[in-house]
Design brief:
By secondary structure, the protein is of the alpha/beta class. Helix content is 34%, strand content 22%. The protein starts with 9 loop residues before the first helix and ends with a strand. A seven-stranded mixed beta sheet has the order 2-17-8-1-7-5-6, with helices on both faces. A four-stranded antiparallel beta sheet has the order 11-12-14-13. The protein has a two-stranded antiparallel sheet with strand order 3-4. The protein folds into two domains: 10-91 and 132-247 and 358-370, 3-Layer(aba) Sandwich (Alkaline Phosphatase, subunit A); 251-349, 2-Layer Sandwich (Gyrase A, domain 2). The chain has helices spanning 10-20, 50-56, 62-65, 80-89, 93-96, 126-129, 135-141, 158-163, 175-185, 199-207, 212-231, 284-294, 304-309, 319-324, 344-349, 359-362, and strands spanning 39-45, 67-73, 102-104, 114-116, 145-150, 168-171, 191-197, 237-241, 247-248, 251-254, 265-268, 274-279, 299-303, 328-332, 336-339, 352-353, 363-370. Helix 1 (10-20) runs parallel beside helix 4 (80-89), helix 9 runs parallel beside helix 11 and helix 10 packs antiparallel against helix 11.
Amino acid sequence: MELAANMRNLAALSNSIFANLKVPGAINHLDLPENTSARECLLLVDGMGLIALNQYSDQFPIFKELQSLPNLNSHFPSTTATNLSSLGTGVLPGVHGMLGYTVRVPRSGEPGRLLNSLKWDDRVDPVMWQKVPTLFERAVAADINVWHIAAKRYEGSGFTSAALRGAKYLGANQIEDLIQGAVTSLEKPGSFTYLYVNHLDHAGHEDGVGSDSWLEALGTVAELITGLKNRLPKGSRLWVTADHGMINVEEKIVLGADNDLMAGVALVGGEPRARHIYVDAEKLSDVVQTWRETLSDSADIFTKAEAIAGGLFGAEVSEDSFERMGDLIAIAKKGVILVDPARVKEESKMVGHHGGLLETETAVPLLTFQN
């Protein structure tokens, strides 16, 4: 699956790195220079948006020691499940079908049930849900040593099996363990190591971007990067990026039963900044009109047909993606969140959110270093 040459996103990045490792079919969309030592390490920092990093990185000298390349942009929605799936598969969301935090499971009854992409559902086979072979699988088939190093709790999860399958998994909960795991995994040429940490995303959701806990988490990220830079085997090339940025909430709109917006709505999916809205078919036109009139200043509303025609999830949309996609896609503007009535307490207490199309959410850094 080729990506447009001017697209700078996680699918393009992973394709480009694996192309350098001579994985058949991978394309160097970003024109990355060759690394003759064939040792590649990709660190994905969940929630480390470019705008916030530019604002606060001066407090941590390591960020100045890395080469900064033109930024990447999050896929829509700007959320972890979608973007890590694009990184893992090398294709756009409309193809891999991981369209958001929660989407409706087709043919699951009325109004249907939601699949939470990160918490999963044992009734759903992750390999059948996300059928595209991952770049990790393709690299292993090409005799590349592929490692996935992240918290122990993610090993064998539904999401890992769907989006990131194929790598040797090393569970590591401490910074030192992450660093040592990366050092060991890259001892031999022809190796790729993917590292994932979510300290920053967690702090942002809990206390907001720029909070004391968020800055402490950024310090932890800086410690990890410093350790990798100083200790990775000679010839290793380090890439540092993220899946999305984050905004601090300013206005909450609860989609409760007493809200006119819910008339004709069967199910609310997605997340507060990017909603998949499932609608009773005979009421679709009325729901579209009501949502657009009511939320004109707060959200952009797309029908499924408009979202597909506009390439919101990429130029190609598979049959699976079509069936999972909301009848309406509601993308919050400014600092607005659209709160699911079934998750009011959980969603309302979070300070930081993402999923939408603001540059604060979509622009992510691309930093590199080769020792």
